Every structure is written in C-alpha cells, then in structure tokens.
Amino acid sequence: MAMIGDIRNAGGRAIQGGVENVGLFAFFLQAAFVGLPALLRGDRFARRRTVDALSDTALRPLPIVTMLAALTGLVLAFSVSRAFHVVNLEEPLLRALRSALMREVMPVLIGIFVAGRSGVALAVRIGRMIAGGEVDSLRLMGVDPADHVLPASLLAFLFAAAALLVWGDGIAHLAAALTLQQFEAIPVARYTTIVFAEGARSDFWFGFLRVEVYAMLALGIASAEGSGAGRDPQTLEAAAWRTFVISLLAIFGAAAIFAGAGA
Amino acid sequence: MIEARGLALMRGGARVLDDISFTLERGQCMAIVGRSGSGKTLLLRLLAGLERASEGHLQIAGEAAENLPEHEWHKLRRHIGLVLENGALLHDLTLAENLAFPLCKLELADSEIEKRLEHCLINFDLDPWRNAQSNEISASLTKRALLARALITEPHIVMLDAPFEGLDPEARAELQADLKRLVAVQHVALLVTSNDKAGAESLGANMMALERGCLSSRQKEPA
Predict the structure, then answer these.
(1) Are A42 and A147 a contacting pair, CB within 8 Å?
(2) pTM for this prediction
(3) Closest Cα partner for B222 from B29, B21, B20, B6?
(4) CA separation for the pair B66, B54 (Å, rounded)
C-alpha cells in the first residue's frame, strides 16, 4: 500500500510539474515568440496600443485589486488565528496560510479579475470592431485584424497578470501580518521570518505560473467569444456574459486540476 | 484590372448575387445602379475579397483571385481602395494617424509618409481635424476621411459604395469632378455604386443595373 502511495505521489508531482510547465510556456514562449516579435514588426502605433492595453489591464484595476487582496489576507489571517487556539502549531499554520494565499487564492482571484475585467473588455472590443466595420477596414488595408489586436492584448494579459499577482501577494501578506499582530500579538517581523522562509519561493512560482495559465485561458476565451459575436450589436452583451462565465469555469477547472495534481 | 465571369454568392441557401460578369480596365469608370438591398455593397465586398464567391472567376490586377487565401488577398488589396457605405476609421487613432496607417504597411520612408499625409490632409480639407479622435468627428467628415484613406496609397482600382449619398449638391458636384480627374489623370479603374442614376450618369460612367443580385443590363463599350 505504501508503494502504491509513493507511486501516486510521484505521479501527482510529475503531472503537477507538467501542468505548471504549461504556465511557463504561456508566459515566456508566448511573450518571446509571439507577442514581442509581432509588436516589433507591427505598425508604428503597435507600441502605443500595447502601452494602452497594459495600462488598462494592469494599472486601472490596481485600487480594486489592492482592496480585494487586503480583504483576502485579512479573512485568511482570521481563519488561521482561530486554529491557533485549537492546535498550538503557529509555524506550520502560517506556512499553510502562505501556501493558500500564494499558490491558490491569489492566482485564482487575479485570474478572475483579469477575465472579468480585461477579458470581457477585449471580447466587447473585438465584437464592436466587427460590427462597426473596423475589422473590414483593417482587412482592406492589408492588415490581419488578429495581428492588430492580439499581440498587444497577449503581452498586456501576460504582464498584467504577473504584476497584479506580485502586488496582490504583497498586499495580502501585509494585511495578514497586520491582522495577526493586532489580534494574536504575533509581531510582523516574526510573521515575515516564518512566511518568507523555506518554500516561499516555490509557492510564489507555482502561483505565478498558474496565474499565467488563467490569463491565457481568459485571453483565448475572450478572443473566441468576441470574434464569434457577429455583426449584430445585440449579440455583444451575450458574448460578454459568455466570456465571463466560460472564463470562470475554465479558471476553476484549471485550479481544480492543479490542486488535484498536487494533492 | 477587374474581370468578373459568372460570379455568384450564396447566403443561407439563396443566391444573393448571380452570374455577375463584367470587365473594368484602368482609366475606365463604371457605375452599378440599383435599389437598396439589390446587392451593390455585397458585390463590392466580393470584388475586394471580403466575401468569397461561391461560383465564377475573378481576376484582379492580372491575378486569379477567387480562391486566394486571406494573406494573399492582403497583398492584392494594396491595389484596391474601397470605401464602404458603413466603413469605419480605427477608433484608437486620430484622423491623421488613420490616414497614415495604410502607408505604414507599404514600408515607405517616414519622409514620404509625412509628405503624402500633409498633401492628403490639405487636399481633402481635413487639416483642422488632424488630431481629432475618429469618434469625435461628424459622419460627413468621416466619409471624407475614408475616401482620403482609400486614395492615399494611390491604388489602381477605386471602388466607392454610394459615394454621393447624403451630400449636398455642391459637395456632390465637387466629388464628381474629383472622381473624373482621378480616372482621367491617374488612370484609375473606378467602380461606384449608387441608388441615384442621375448622379452616376454625370460621371460619364458605363452604367450597369443590379436587380435582386443580377446585373440586368449589358456593359457599354467604351467610346
């Protein structure tokens, strides 16, 4: 039985490694071989489109991401602090809090945020470009509409998801540390020492790669739904809603696969 | 320049365009007249490769075009300036950037792009709005900007969908004179569609009538 358990764990780790590598591909390969070259060979306005897309995807959501991350850190810190009274295992519990935040909760939260805000906006934009004749204009000027829209969005989604995750992780940990200092008298320095000890880097990278997968799922679904919206402006609302719902299902499905493979 | 033989387009099981045949050479002007819904816009879209013919043969600038893949059409469309009735400027660019956009694709030197752009802005009286976002300008200015954008690359084939629609008599006369000049001086192959027979006649064009997707009158031989 023990041997079967070992094999299962080894299999799980291999799958986990494979699935996490999808995130690595999503980020580095797409940025290096799809987004950046398309940007460089694009028209003179391509860089500005990318900066606009980045600002829209990464900077504008910052206030709400900050609030959500702080509340998430606070809620998880309270949950952990209740367990302190039941079991006196401060260090493992804080490490579990770190893993939950960095590997699972924040990547999903940022993934949902990118899908719900930037994914829906991209689907609506593509739909509007089709309905409003901009796509025809691009084709008439010898420009592939996908080349015009997607490289900037791809880079924006990749970098914005990573940047928002780093920011969100920081804010969530700050909120958790302050909460535990206030209510459990655990000094921030002690929290920092425990949380950022062994395993923190691995948790961060797992979270980082997961959020890139979620961002790519959101981008793919938004592009497909926006392109399929057709010429009727009435169908845009439905496409926006479908983009959000399908992205949610895809992100939670992927999160379940990641969690299951790592269990 | 354009040779269409037996072109047909099916939509939802119906033939929306049927047996379209004509030729148009450089320095010639042709007007396709028909009621709303007769298929004029669809025909222009078909000739520019925005729709794919279900049957027939289409030759553009000496190249068989009916089965060309989209990336080949991108190259071929550099010979074509098409202004659709519901055409749009790119919303994330200013008016001047919209005009410069197709020039960037021709890999011209920056100085040449600037020269053509300035010339175009002045010729089409668009200079005062050069920095306006495309969603800030009126419909008539948009129409003028679309025409300017179609002509700035100096295409050999110009196709205009209902160009006289909504113009006052003065603007219409001005446009007619400009189009005649385009054909006579730059030897462009000009194809216009119109609801209005008189407007098309004043261009001195070969007239063809499009009715329920069929060209119902024969092309006149050039004088």
Answers:
(1) yes
(2) 0.80
(3) B29
(4) 9
Q: Virtual CA dihedral for A218, A219, A220, A224, nearest 10 degrees?
A: 100
- Strands B80-83 and B157-161, by their bridges, are parallel
ipTM score of complex: 0.86
- What is the distance between the alpha carbons of residues A247 and A139, in angstroms, rounded to a whole number? 29
Q: Which amino acid is at B191?
A: L
Spell out where B43-91 has E strands: 55-60, 63-64, 80-83
Which A residues, 36 through 75, put their C-beta within 8 Å of a C-beta on chain B? 43-45, 49, 52
Strands annotated E in A98-225 = none
Give the amino acid at A225: E
CA A235 to chain centre: 27
Q: Are A146 and A205 in contact (CB under 8 A)?
A: no
**From CA A239, how far away is CA A219, in angstroms rounded?**
14
Q: Count CB-CB contacts under 10 A for residue B149.
A: 26
Residue A236: closest CA among A112, A131, A117:
A131
State the amino acid at position A51 in one-letter form: V
**Whole-angstrom Cα distance, residue A132 to residue A134?**
6
Tokens representing residue B3 in the block: 């040779």
The phi and psi torsions of B64 (rounded to 5 degrees) equal -65, 120
Residue B166 has pLDDT above 80, yes or no: no
Q: Which residues pair with B15 in a beta bridge?
A: B10
Using a CB-CB cut-off of 8 Å, the residues of chain B touching A136 are 45, 50, 84, 87-88
Using the Cβ of A237 and the Cβ atoms of chain B, whether some distance falls under 8 Å is answered with no
Tens digits of residue pLDDT in A105-160? 999 999 999 999 999 999 999 999 988 889 999 999 888 888 888 888 988 998 99
Of residues A7, A16, A5, the one with CA closest to residue A210:
A16
* Chain segment A175-192, per-residue pLDDT in tens: 999 999 998 888 999 899
CA distance B135 to B144: 14
Beta-carbon separation of A140 and B97 below 8 A: no
